[in-house]
Amino acid sequence: FQERLAAEYHCILKMKLKNNWLHVRDTLSVWKRSEMCCLVFGGDDDDKGGKAGSDASSSSGSGVEEAYYKYIPPEEKLPENMAAPCVAHLFGPKSNDKK
């Protein structure tokens, strides 16, 4: 379940529940289905398998490769850098401290 969730969705909210027991760290997370994008890498013009500009599905053996990735809009991305307060200084100065 978790592998498929991470492969097809992205987390847009993760929050601590208010009424946790002392020994429990339960959180609530909200996930949104990710848009899948395809990159097609074409072979060289010197390849003997297919014509330049042909689509990947019809050019087997021509060096054309497809790669899929999840597109996550910037406004839906969670922060990548997270740290406990005792080690937050390792990130350097805060971005709003820059002049």
Structure description:
The chain is mainly beta. It is 7% helix and 29% strand. The chain has one helix spanning 2-8, and strands spanning 9-16, 27-33, 35-41, 65-71. The strands form 2 sheets. Strands 1-2 form a two-stranded antiparallel ribbon. A two-stranded antiparallel ribbon has the order 3-4. The protein starts with a helix and ends in a 28-residue tail after the last strand.
Q: What is the fold's blueprint, element by element?
A:
Blueprint: H1 2-8, E1 9-16, E2 27-33, E3 35-41, E4 65-71
Antiparallel strand pairs: 1-2, 3-4
Instruction: Count up the helices.
Output: 1
Spatial ordering of strands, largest sheet: 1-2
Measured as a percent range, the helix fraction is: under 10%
Number of strands: 4
Beta-strand portion reads: 25-35%
Distance between the termini: 45 Å
Low-confidence stretches: 49-59
Tell me the series of helices and strands, N- to C-terminal.
HEEEE
> Given the C-alpha coordinates, what overall shape results?
extended
List keywords for this structure.
1 helix; 99 residues; mainly beta; two-stranded antiparallel ribbon; two-stranded antiparallel sheet
Offer a quick outline of the entry.
The chain is built from one helix and four strands. By secondary structure, it is mostly beta strands. Strands 1-2 form a two-stranded antiparallel sheet. A two-stranded antiparallel sheet has the order 3-4.
